[in-house]
Amino acid sequence: MLHPSYSDLMKVVNSNAKEGEEKIVSSRYSIVMATAKRARQIIAGDEPMVAMKPGMKPLSAAVEELNEGKVRILSDEEAAEELGVKE
């Protein structure tokens, strides 16, 4: 079992949302998808942003990155903005 729990991760990720704004992550599915995407990036060769312990797997590294706030989940609007997509 991975620690922290998904609900703890959701609290960490949503702590960056300003008062009155919509939460960044509102479901377990969202946090699982974000963590899986980051794990695939690590597998593909991205350097983990946390110290890798012996035997640590990419998913564990992705969870740790989210928990430590080293990776930020973008809202759909922020992602489109970063890609330069206009609505």
| Strand portion | under 5%
Q: Helical element count? A: 4
The profile of the biggest β sheet is: none
Catalogue the unreliable spans. Answer: none
> What is the share of helical residues?
40-55%
User: Which geometry do the CA atoms define?
Assistant: globular
InterPro entries: DNA-dir_RNA_pol_omega (IPR003716), Pol_omega/Rpo6/RPB6 (IPR006110), RPB6/omega-like_sf (IPR036161)
Subunit structure: The RNAP catalytic core consists of 2 alpha, 1 beta, 1 beta' and 1 omega subunit. When a sigma factor is associated with the core the holoenzyme is formed, which can initiate transcription.
EC number: 2.7.7.6
Family: Belongs to the RNA polymerase subunit omega family.
Question: Can I get a quick summary?
Answer:
This protein is mainly α. Helix content is 49%, strand content 0%. It has helices spanning 6-14, 28-43, 58-67, 76-83.
Structure report:
It is a single chain. By secondary structure, the chain is mainly alpha-helical. Helices cover 49% and strands 0% of the residues. It contains four helices and no strands. The chain has helices at residues 6-14, 28-43, 58-67, 76-83. Helix 2 (28-43) packs across helix 3. The longest helix is centred in the middle third of the chain and has 16 residues, at 28-43. 17% of the residues are buried. The mean pLDDT is 83. This is DNA-directed RNA polymerase subunit omega. Its EC number is 2.7.7.6. Promotes RNA polymerase assembly. Latches the N- and C-terminal regions of the beta' subunit thereby facilitating its interaction with the beta and alpha subunits. It comes from Candidatus Eisenbergiella merdipullorum. GO terms for molecular function: DNA binding; DNA-directed RNA polymerase activity.
